[in-house]
C-alpha cells in the first residue's frame, strides 16, 4: 500500500456547489471539515448521505456513548484503521471510557476481564460482525435480551457503519 491518500482532497470552500454539504458537515462536526470528509466531498451525494448516517449513529441513538466508542475502537483495531482509532481515542475518553479500557480494546478478547457485561457484549458483537459477518445465535440472543428492538438495530448499525468508515479509510489510505 502506498503512503499517499488515493483521491484528491477537496479544499473546503473551493467549489461553490458544495457549500450546502460543507455547511451540514460543519454543523454536525463542530466547525471543521476533517480529511475524511475532504475525501468524501469528491462525491457530494456520498458526502451528504454519509454525514446524515454517521450523525445518526454517533449522536442520535439510545446506545450509551461509552459502548458506542468501544465498538468504534474495536472495529478500528480489527480493520487496521489507525486513523479512526486515534480520532476516537479522545472521544471515548470524553464518553467516560478509561485509558486502561481504551488500550484494552487492542488486546480483546484476552483483556475481557477489564470490561463489564455490557461492554463484553458490545465487543463480542463487534468481533463477530467485523471478523465473521455472521453473528452466532447465542450472541444475538444476548443482544436481544439487553436491548429492545430499537437498540438492537442501533447497536448493529453502529458496528456496520464503523466497518464502512474504517474500510473506506484503509482503502483510500487515509492515515492522518
UniProtKB/TrEMBL annotation:
Ranges for domain Carboxymuconolactone decarboxylase-like: 45-115
GO MF annotations, alphabetized: peroxiredoxin activity
Entries under InterPro entries matching the protein: AhpD-like (IPR029032), CMD-like (IPR003779)
Top-level taxon of origin: Bacteria
One Pfam family it belongs to: CMD
SUPFAM superfamilies, per database record: AhpD-like (SSF69118)
Protein name as catalogued: Carboxymuconolactone decarboxylase-like domain-containing protein
